[in-house]
Amino acid sequence: MSRTQSKMKSHYDVKSQHRVFAPGQKVLLFLPVQGNPLASKFSGPYVISHKVTDLNYVVHTPDRRKNCQLVHINQIKPYFERQLEEDQNTTFVNDERPVNILNKVSVDRVHHEVEDSCVAERVYIPSPRGNPSNSHILSNFNEYLSEWHHTVLRQQTNKVMADSKLNIGDVKKDFSNPEIVKRYVQYRPSPPSSIVSSVLHFHRQQQQQEHGVKDIKGEGDSSLCVDVGCGSGQNTQLYADHFKHVVGVDVSLDQLDAARVRNTRTNVSYRQGRGEDLPLEDESVDLITCCSSLHWFNIPAFFNEVKRVMKPGGVLACYWYRLPECHYGSHSFNDVIEEVWESWREYWPPCHQFIMKDDIQLPHLYPDQVTVRLSERKFVLEREGYLDDFLGFLHSTAVFQNLELDKGTQEAQHSLDELRQRLVSKMGRGNEADKVMLKYYYALRMWRKPSH
Ligand SMILES: C[S@@+](CC[C@H](N)C(=O)[O-])C[C@H]1O[C@@H](n2cnc3c(N)ncnc32)[C@H](O)[C@@H]1O
User: Fold this and answer.
1) Domain 180-411+418-448 in CATH: superfamily?
2) Which of 36, 362, 375, 443 is most buried as measured by Cβ atoms within 10 A of its Cβ?
3) Are 399 and 344 a contacting pair, CB within 8 Å?
4) What is the value of pTM for the model shown?
């Protein structure tokens, strides 16, 4: 039977082609004709938002009833601009040349340059200018130059993100959506101090052997810790007491803006960059951390960058948590939560499997390594809060973002309300304003670069 099935499959697949669409790509969609739902035709162009699975894409359809919809690959075909339009629309977004969005900088200059870039970003106000005269442009050249620089930087960043989505054949979340940034700031936890201690302990083992010191921070030292995929900075600041400089790197300018607003430490700064192309000099970093971010990177490309920028003896520490557990007194809500999470499986981005699994296979980096699995339940962050804190966390996930895109905000919100009702009924009438306990269990992977 299976032989016949595979023979039939190869027979039918003879003319089939593997098709992939990139976020931002223009396409035509085979959709019902408006006003005549029994007829369908290709219309558009529409723009791909992101891939959900190999067979399904979320596409922006602003002129339809749903602003965004989930579309099967068989209903999609590429849209080709006419040559004339291409010539007229020569913008940087369409520019296919590889872009290096940041210069590599030396460690001693990191802090200073980061501060400069913060100032520049804060003064950037996009303004439609119409068609200014040449003389007006020349007399305000510096202002135009800086505005152009930032507009292009944002456009190029979007392009770079879109490219990286393509490279890893994975779905990316829109981390720059202001609503998501807000949810991150409000609902994403900082890792437990036990993880930070383990990382510092592993890092110091080598330093102690080599230099006989406890902490490497000291007068005149240039120790550098870099937090890659820092988001709004929950993890970054935790290393400020232990290194001369701590730099948070993230691809999203909006996440970085939120991190800078929250920053209370003078030796912590933030700069834009990709894990796959770090804005850092060769052999310049003592410790690299990735808190809940590794799964969003192209991991082989990131590991290559780690090898390049890490000082001999330096450490890469990656940690992440699964969905938090939620408890009310002796009652656990985990069965209900797991059931709902499972029912959203079609919205899990492929990289999400990473954080749900206990046994993750990663490419080889260095032989000196440490693994602590989720199932060991060694690192836990316990946070007292309310039901809405737990629901707010769910709201901040890529899974919920995909659900919203597919079903629309109202229907997605309705799913959360239903979950809330189920949890409230478990708490018992009148108890819904009581506190609950959220438990985030963490996994940890660390690698040390050989000294020589
Ligand atoms: C799940 S968030 C984690 C944020 C933060 N570290 C935390 O603990 O909550 C992942 C972050 O990685 C960033 N990111 C995704 N892909 C990236 C890449 N290729 N390079 C750098 N940052 C990236 C996103 O912008 C986002 O801020």
Assistant:
1) Vaccinia Virus protein VP39 (3.40.50.150)
2) 443
3) yes
4) 0.65
